[in-house]
Design brief:
- This protein is mainly beta.
- The chain has a domain at 35-95 and 192-336.
- Helices cover 7% and strands 32% of the residues.
- It has two helices and 28 strands.
- It has a ten-stranded parallel sheet, with no helix packed on it. Strands 3-6-9-12-15-18-21-24-27 form a nine-stranded parallel sheet, with no helix packed on it.
- It is globular.
- It starts with 19 loop residues before the first helix and ends in a 12-residue tail after the last strand.
Length: 348
């Protein structure tokens, strides 16, 4: 077996930002940050890099049983090449805070609607339970079971319009089985998030958007069942233009959709790069052993499944528990990252 050393270049910080107040005064509010774009040469570069990584971790013996590469201690850095959507692939360097947070504090909880928390390193839990809360350019260094917790308001009902922008969640100081972002019922948007040094991934249910983010799981424990993004029943979920990697023993998949507590209904998985040392790279919401086995309106569109760990992405294939062509489920434009070759629609 041939291996190459994995190294990560020093993380590049984004250029210093203009003072937030001055920016709002001039523009009437914070302007959205443009995502850099690249052309076809960027796609070729991404494919070439991924192919090199795959060659460094694959057995050259014909007929040998596939086995995943050993866990790395640092996140692979894919760079800013273009994905199938033409939008830059997220990386360690383009996600998380755009500059070093200026302040440090212990655990934080929102205390009013419309609150903005920014430019801060939080050690402990960040709890969000108010409408229109924005968390921006913040690092959360988790220490307990939940690192970011989106929960119901004190008077009942979920907070609306919760946004996490350029947020880093570092789980190196928390137990391996802790959850970096936990939202058992309520919705939120994570944009340009960086999640690392964690064992479990993001746990979601309803009305969630995760986009332009880099999620890399490396930690594990005895008897672990882990995934990069998971729902145990929910609706109105979008996973768009992310890198989602679940590495080390105990990975179920990079993305798991199980109908344990409710049906999986209305999930868009689009323009992601996915890799896993698990049995599969994704479970698609229609798992027969679950209480709600019939996922509906689950769409896998234009994703890139990587052979970084196995020739079939997961040990046994790219996806399981997916009823293609039934109940509005759709499989379209999905390819192998390393070659760009299409992946056939899974058998229902």
């Amino acid at each position: 077996m041939r291996r190459c050393a994995r190294t990560v270049p020093p993380r590049r910080r984004h250029p210093p930002r203009e003072r937030a107040g001055a920016r709002r005064e001039r523009a009437g509010g914070p302007a959205p940050r443009a995502v850099p774009r690249a052309g076809a040469r960027g796609v070729v570069a991404l494919v070439a890099l991924a192919a090199t990584l795959a060659a460094c971790t694959s057995s050259t013996d014909d007929g040998a049983s596939p086995s995943p590469a050993g866990a790395s201690s640092s996140a692979p850095e894919p760079g800013a090449e273009a994905s199938t959507s033409g939008t830059a692939v997220p990386s360690v360097s383009t996600t998380g805070p755009r500059s070093d947070p200026a302040r440090s504090t212990g655990p934080v909880a929102t205390d009013r609607a419309g609150q903005t928390i920014e430019g801060t390193t939080i050690t402990g839990r960040l709890t969000i339970s108010h409408d229109d809360a924005t968390v921006r350019d913040v690092t959360v260094r988790g220490t307990g079971t939940y690192m970011i917790y989106v929960q119901e308001k004190s008077g009942g009902g979920c907070p609306e319009n919760v946004r996490l922008e350029y947020v880093e969640v570092d789980g190196s100081g928390a137990p391996a089985d802790s959850i970096p972002i936990y939202s058992p019922e309520c919705g939120f948007t994570l944009d340009h998030g960086l999640v690392h040094h964690v064992g479990r991934g993001i746990r979601i249910a309803n009305d969630v958007v995760v986009e332009n983010s880099y999620i890399f799981l490396t930690r594990t424990w005895e008897g672990a069942h882990r995934s990069g993004v998971s729902t145990h029943g929910g609706e109105h979920i979008v996973l768009r233009n992310n890198v989602i990697i679940c590495e080390n023993v105990g990975c179920s998949a990079a993305i798991t959709m199980y109908g344990d507590h409710a049906p999986v209904d209305g999930v868009l998985v689009e323009h992601n790069v996915i890799a896993s040392t698990g049995s599969y790279c994704a479970y698609g919401g229609s798992v027969e052993s679950k209480s709600f086995p019939d996922g509906a309106d689950v769409r896998f569109i234009d994703n890139r499944f990587s052979t970084r760990y196995f020739p079939t992405c997961g040990r046994y294939g790219p996806v399981a528990g997916f009823a293609a062509g039934s109940r509005g489920n759709e499989w379209r434009g999905n390819v192998w990252q390393e070659t760009g070759e299409p992946i056939r629609e899974p058998a229902s």
